[in-house]
Amino acid sequence: MWSYALKRAATTAVTLLAASVIIFAFIHIVPGDPIYVLLGDTATPDQIDALRHQLGLDQPIILQYLTWVGHVTEGNLGRSIFFQAPVLSVIADGAETSALLATMTMIWVTLIGVPIGMIAAVRHGTWLDQGLSGAAMLMASIPTFWVGLYLILIFAAWLGWFPSSGYPSIFEGGIVNLRYLVLPSLALAAPNAALILRLTRASMLDVSREDYVRTARAKGIRPWQVVRRHILRNALLAVVSAFGFTFAALLSEAVVTETVFALPGIGRLVVQSILRRDYPVIQGVILVIVVVYLLVNLIVDLSYRLLDPRVELQ
Q1: What would the pLDDT profile of 244-253 be if each residue is shown by its tens digit?
Q2: Single pTM value for the model
Q3: CA-wise closest residue to 135 among 122, 152, 119, 149
């Protein structure tokens, strides 16, 4: 386990280095200049040159990259051009919303996808299986923003059960403020739960055809024990691996969802920072997302050993 962890640490370091190069290069290739965004079209050439020098944007691109990487290794992601504040503090302002939204979404995905996938697999070939599989295909094909708009229309506008937008911090109003994230988390969970549902069903059907499952049934073991002890546990290996990809999908889909529900999260911050050409914030947010994604995938890989001790990590 320790040797595997060291290998993954080395791989993670190389991946982060490559990601930093790609992030920095692509952001500076995008058309637009933050100087004109800040000063406007009426700025004089002297004002433009002075601000460009102040922000270090007049230096060679390679020197800008090396300076940025050097600061990152010290835990400093730079200073926001627009907010005039450290990038870490700007990210921290939206981290609570995004972290809670992702957590609630993954809870919905697990509670909806895995149990319903189990039911579909156990009732394979019946009308219930066909109905659940069809519903999963429908959920996976509907755009997230469309689901979000109809959730707002039904549960916020018509029924008035949940707020339609915004999110006041739970540190200000308590845990009751989590109700602001119910609708956006459901909108995010819909297509991802459909993926987990179908994967759970397919994995359980594959495992149920194995010889040891037929042997367990021949011994007269109760059906629900066969499902729980022999089929589900082995089928979950494929399902758990999909959670890493599901989390990656959340990072991209959250941009749209946070915009639809006007949530002060990381996704909305990225969109606003792109429009403002706030290079340090964009670079910092994407780098943090890469780190979180790598950590999630590491946790997923390590969880294999908990589900099946026979799995060897390499």
Answers
A1: 777 766 776 7
A2: 0.79
A3: 119
